[in-house]
Amino acid sequence: MISIKNVSKSFGSVKALDDVSFDVRNGEVVGYVGLNGAGKTTTIRIAVGVLPPDDGDVEIDGFSIVRDKRKASERIGWIPEIPLFERDFKALDYFVYIAGFHGIRGDEARRLGRELLEKVGLGDAMNKKLGHYSQGMRKRFALALSLINDPPNFLFDEVLNGLDPQGIAFFRELALEFKKNGKAVLFSSHILTEVENIADRVVFIHKGRIIADKTIEEIKREASSGGHSSLEEYFFKLIGVKI
């Protein structure tokens, strides 16, 4: 379970997050929706321990990302919007290198690497250098790394951006598999049709503040009664933008 509790963050005079709170429960997929600069990436980077909050905290299965970062981080799988790796490493070699930080080494690490790279669709590219990977391949590789210790919580930052339809379908099915297996999944996305297809709940953020937190069923009922045919129209109404 991911619990974001009264998190605030400023960069200079800019208030990026203002008292942000919401939960992602086990076996639930939550979409995180907002315009560019609304605070989605900042929220996720705080939740995985890359950025410290100015105020508030994030708990991962009860472990504070501020006070008990190691234990909290062990329970998180994270895919950033733009994954970066050492370009001259072959994928399998880099996987083995990272697995070593999790205490998995030698033949066991290579066996796990082959297994997970096959799982994410990179079986034919595991001996390619990472510098030759496309954006979609880098995201799949980041997923393989996040699966090393089979964490119960996943955070995906704009994971669908830059993917072809096959890549989008892959991550859609993966999120639903995680849900079936009782994992908590938070993903931010601009592709609102896919948010509708994947999410159980949607949290809307605007100018650093949460403006709505509703199930897909609630959104559909409200959108229908308000004459809106899509999640996109519903969102723009929330923030007062005409389309």
What does this structure look like?
This protein is an alpha/beta fold and 243 residues long. It has two domains: 2-75 and 152-239, 3-Layer(aba) Sandwich (Rossmann fold); 85-150. The protein has nine helices and ten strands. A six-stranded mixed beta sheet has the order 6-7-8-3-9-10, with helices on both faces. Strands 2-1-4-5 form a four-stranded antiparallel beta sheet. Helix 3 (91-101) crosses helix 4 (106-119). The radius of gyration is 18 Å and the shape is globular.
- Helical proportion, percent range: 25-40%
What is the class of the largest domain in the CATH system?
Alpha Beta
- Low-confidence regions: none
Domain count: the total is 2
The overall average pLDDT, rounded, is 93
Main structural class: alpha/beta
Distance between the termini: 36 Å
Report the β-strand fraction as a percent range: 25-35%
Q: Report on the biggest sheet.
A: 6 strands, mixed
Task: Write out the strand line-up for the largest beta sheet, numbering strands in chain order.
Answer: 6-7-8-3-9-10
Shape descriptor: globular
The CATH H-level superfamily of the largest domain is P-loop containing nucleotide triphosphate hydrolases
Number of strands: 10
Give me the strand/helix succession: EEEHEEHEHHHEHEHEEHH
| Cα gyration radius (Å) | 18 Å
Instruction: Give the CATH architecture of the largest domain.
Output: 3-Layer(aba) Sandwich
